[in-house]
Design goal:
499 residues, alpha/beta, Rossmann fold, six-stranded mixed sheet, 18 helices, 22 strands, 33% helix, 25% strand, globular
Length: 499
């Protein structure tokens, strides 16, 4: 029997913490210390208990049993506000911003700065902009959040936490929507906080980040703490095997070279907002074409235009050699183009509806007969989609209660039901654990093997390199070249992405 370590006098000590929701136990006897000025990475698959542990520390939910101390004194927060009063704050994985309010108002919501009985908007704007600039976001704090892209919204969420002047910050997937440059700025900020004695708990599915930001690593599996490493210099393969409880031979599947005809050809594409300019490339049947570049390079804007979501100012799109005009997503669907968006919760799913209904929406022409759709048909259609992608759920289950990986599988299954010619995936594994990520990679490879053309946009260089036959690199809205599989290295991509 492992002896429980003594409670530390400073920092956060967690002892024998358990948590059950009804008959389901999601945390089992967790012992962990977070010392002043250190960053502890907490790793694990979706459902391993990472977010539950974070929620307990941050006062969102109470533990079922166990105890915590903070700087030697008993610590049992009954609310996030009480945790904040102790100097402990949580940066949520899912952004909780108010779109109609400004950046500054979101940063200081619930704790507005006052002067002479009035809200001091000038000081709020000033303080918010200081934190935004530290994170590399140089925009006015008066800008409404709804006008920001996903990456910029994530930076606002981080800036919000940094203004708390907390002693311990919990980062839950903070870089899920960020590119390399934004991630580096966040790490620099975490380094500054560590030098000031601020502790942090860092949760991420991007294992390559861990050695850069963490001092120690804790690994959870099925609610139990299975490993604690006193260094972050741990091989990724070892961490993966600890997380999933089995040997992982390969994360990326073998992908044969494409032999099919050209499916998509774009020439001189320029966006109506000038987000991208004079872009030309082609994709063959059976090919996975990667698009890389830092956030703001125009990657998402480009594929949204190809999918008929955003307008074009110039250029032509050809499918199987024939020019097409795509002025709406419906046009793209009818032409055989489908897109899995980067923001699956905001743009890809109806979280309050069952899996079957989510799969049916947009596919009613396939589900019903003569314009009529019966519930039994929807359930059967959903069941078939669930089976095709290995979704862990039932047709009646609310999609909002699925893990991130299973939600992503639902979107993919929804569009594959249309047997498309071109599948566009924007950040296909954002916020997805390593086990589900490998399954999604297998699914992408199977699409190519079935003769579909696939475009993958990703901020994860390992992902875009491991999956793609060719990689186009964008920088500041322009193409910096297309690299063949053997040429697409981290160095070659970043050299082009940063020019």
């Amino acid at each position: 029997m492992t002896e429980t370590p003594p409670i530390t006098a400073t920092g956060l000590s967690i002892r024998n913490i358990t948590k059950s929701f009804g008959p389901v136990r999601v945390l089992e006897g967790i012992d962990l210390d977070i010392r002043p000025g250190e960053c502890v990475a907490v790793l694990g698959e979706n459902g391993a208990g990472k977010s539950t542990l974070s929620a307990i520390i941050a006062g969102v939910i109470p533990p079922s049993s166990g105890e915590m101390t903070w700087n030697g004194a008993p610590y049992a927060p009954r609310s996030p506000a009480e945790a904040l009063s102790h100097g402990i704050g949580l940066i949520h994985q899912e952004m909780r911003l108010l779109p109609e309010l400004s950046i500054a108002e979101n940063v200081f919501v619930g704790r507005l700065l006052m002067k002479n009985g009035r809200i001091d908007r000038r000081e709020m704007n000033r303080r918010a902009e200081v934190q935004l600039r530290r994170l590399g976001l140089d925009i006015p704090a008066t800008t409404k959040v709804k006008a920001l892209r996903v990456a910029a919204q994530q930076q606002v969420e981080i800036a919000k936490a940094l203004t708390l002047e907390a002693s311990l910050l919990i980062f839950d997937e903070p870089t899920a929507a960020l590119g390399g440059e934004e991630t580096d700025r966040l790490f620099e900020q975490i380094d500054r906080l560590k030098a000031e004695g601020v502790s942090s708990v860092y949760i991420s599915h991007r294992l390559e980040e861990i050695a850069r930001v963490a001092d120690r690593i804790a690994v959870l599996r099925d609610g139990a703490l299975v490993a604690v490493h006193d260094t972050a210099d741990v091989p990724v393969r070892q961490l993966v095997e600890e997380m999933v409880g089995r040997s992982v031979e390969r994360l990326f599947p073998d992908i044969p070279a494409p032999t099919g005809p050209e499916v998509l050809a774009v020439d001189g594409l320029t966006g109506a907002q000038n987000d991208f300019r004079d872009i030309s490339f082609s994709v063959r049947a059976g090919e996975i074409f990667g698009i890389a570049g830092i956030v703001g390079a125009g990657r998402t804007e480009l594929v949204r235009a190809i999918a008929g979501i955003d307008p074009l100012a110039a250029g032509t799109v050809r499918l199987a050699g024939e020019a097409v005009t795509l002025t709406s997503p419906r046009d793209a669907l009818d032409a055989g183009i489908v897109m899995v968006p980067e923001d699956r919760k905001g743009q890809g799913l109806l979280l309050g509806m069952p899996i079957a209904d989510n799969v049916a929406v947009g596919n009613f022409d396939l589900v019903g007969n003569a314009g009529w759709v019966r519930p039994s048909q929807t359930r059967a259609f959903g069941a078939q989609a669930i089976d095709s992608m290995g979704v862990k759920g039932t047709p009646e289950q609310l999609v909002g209660r699925l893990s991130g990986g299973n939600q992503q599988k639902v979107i993919i299954a929804k569009w594959l039901a249309r047997s498309p010619r071109l599948v566009i995936m924007d950040e296909p594994t954002r916020g997805v654990d390593v086990g589900a990520r490998a399954q999604i990679y297998e699914a992408i490879a199977e699409l190519a093997q079935a003769g579909m053309a696939v475009i993958v946009v990703s901020s994860d260089l390992d992902e875009v390199i491991g999956l793609s036959h060719r990689v186009m690199v964008l920088s500041r809205g322009e193409s910096r070249g297309i690299l063949e599989r053997g040429e697409a290295t981290h160095v070659a991509i970043m050299e082009r992405a940063t020019t």
